[in-house]
């Protein structure tokens, strides 16, 4: 069986050019919800045709907002519901793979021509991947070298030493079994998958501007928070924290002795902003409960900023918040007060043409769609 994995070197092609006039979908199956975006290329712009989100919790008998592990059958049931409810007409596009299901490493290779690399990388990759070659799908690309020849990607603790005769290869591996599961989901949902892409590359494409300064992208999901530093279009460091929006809801529910469902609803409605619908005491408790998780996530963000800054003697001064958690009311103000960097909430739909009356709502819900918009954008870009 062969799979077409994302060719990771395509992160950052610029202009949108239509391969065809066909509409394209991007589907992101997250831990707590699935999102879809349908785009069409028109005169060099990506036009938003439709979008939608569906909570996966109810398909596994748990509350909305909770992370859930579903069978392929249940996921496709949810996707079919989602596409019907969102009036999705296209069945062709890209599907994201969770970062946690991938293995990303950097290979130090001699500088050789492309054809030799093609032969050498899979052999070299065996040293990094603890699985038989027949069980994994590989994708890789040569990282453009940095100004000082420093390591361009750093998941391992020690910075790699590179010298003039060597080059770094960003290698991505995914277990075929995981791809097979996704293929099953795609087949039973009648989706024609043009490529699979690891979510961090999709989110980067839709959320980042074209600046060259390093940016810390933070994806606030349900069960986890993913952080990655992107510089000149290349992911240089990744960090996974097993804490997310679900923990905020859990703490809130416990603190006010509410059901999870109610806590989830209140979190989304008022977040960190006091509301006249609640007493002063309740407002206080809500804020304290939400901040008890958020402050821990934010101190981890600061820790990542600091350690990257120290290691490379560089200041990462920009933080971009994505993921559903970035829609928490009041998060922007809190982040600006707390974090030692500029903070921006991602607005992935700003890369698309949308009806004026939808602009505000898309800005509000946008962070959660970073991955799905990024997938659809990739498929629209000219090869
Ligand atoms: N308006 C909102 N305010 C606060 N939190 C929100 C809001 N909308 C969604 N969330 C929270 O965001 C989280 C889900 O985010 P998202 O949809 O990005 O995660 P996911 O993609 O399902 O998970 P992952 O990326 O970890 O696989 C949930 O905890 C949910 O409660
Ligand atoms: Mg997600």
UniProtKB/TrEMBL annotation:
PANTHER family: CELL DIVISION PROTEIN FTSA-RELATED, ETHANOLAMINE UTILIZATION PROTEIN EUTJ. Gene3D superfamilies: 3.30.1490.300, 3.30.420.40. This is SHS2 domain-containing protein. It comes from the Bacteria. CDD domains: ASKHA_NBD_PilM (cd24049). It comes from Candidatus Kaiserbacteria bacterium RIFCSPHIGHO2_02_FULL_49_16. It holds the Pfam family PilM_2. NCBIfam families: pilM.
């Amino acid at each position: 069986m062969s799979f077409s994995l994302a060719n990771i070197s395509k992160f950052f092609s610029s202009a949108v050019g239509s391969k065809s006039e066909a509409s394209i979908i991007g589907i992101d199956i997250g831990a707590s919800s699935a999102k879809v975006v349908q785009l069409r290329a028109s005169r060099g712009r990506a036009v938003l045709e439709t979008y939608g989100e569906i909570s996966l919790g109810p398909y596994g008998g748990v509350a909305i907002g909770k992370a859930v592990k579903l069978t392929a059958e249940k996921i496709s049931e949810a996707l079919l519901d989602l596409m019907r409810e969102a009036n999705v007409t296209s069945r062709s596009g890209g599907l994201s793979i969770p970062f946690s299901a991938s293995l990303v490493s950097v290979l130090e290779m001699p500088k050789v021509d492309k054809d030799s690399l093609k032969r050498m990388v899979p052999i070299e990759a065996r040293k990094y991947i603890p699985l038989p070659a027949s069980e994994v799908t590989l994708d890789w690309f040569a990282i453009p070298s940095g100004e000082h020849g420093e390591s361009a990607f750093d998941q391992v603790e020690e910075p790699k030493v590179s010298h003039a005769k060597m080059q770094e290869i960003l290698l991505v591996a995914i277990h075929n079994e995981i791809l097979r599961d996704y293929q099953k989901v795609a087949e039973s949902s009648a989706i024609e998958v043009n490529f699979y892409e690891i979510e961090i590359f999709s989110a980067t494409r839709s959320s980042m501007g074209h600046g060259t300064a390093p940016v810390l992208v933070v994806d606030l999901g349900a069960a986890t928070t993913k952080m990655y530093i992107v510089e000149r279009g290349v992911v240089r460091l990744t960090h996974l924290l097993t804490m997310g929006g679900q923990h905020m809801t859990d703490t809130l529910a416990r603190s006010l002795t509410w059901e999870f469902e109610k806590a989830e609803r209140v979190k989304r409605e008022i977040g960190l902003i006091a509301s006249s619908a609640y007493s002063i005491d309740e407002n206080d408790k809500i804020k304290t409960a939400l901040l008890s998780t958020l402050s821990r996530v934010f101190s981890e963000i600061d820790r990542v900023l600091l350690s990257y800054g120290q290691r490379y003697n560089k200041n990462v001064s920009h933080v971009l918040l994505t993921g559903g958690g970035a829609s928490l009311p009041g998060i922007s103000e809190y982040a600006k007060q707390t974090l030692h960097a500029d903070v921006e909430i991602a607005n992935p739909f700003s890369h698309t043409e949308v009806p004026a009356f939808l602009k505000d709502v898309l800005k509000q819900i946008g962070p959660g769609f970073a991955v799905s918009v990024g997938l659809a954008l990739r498929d629209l870009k000219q090869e």
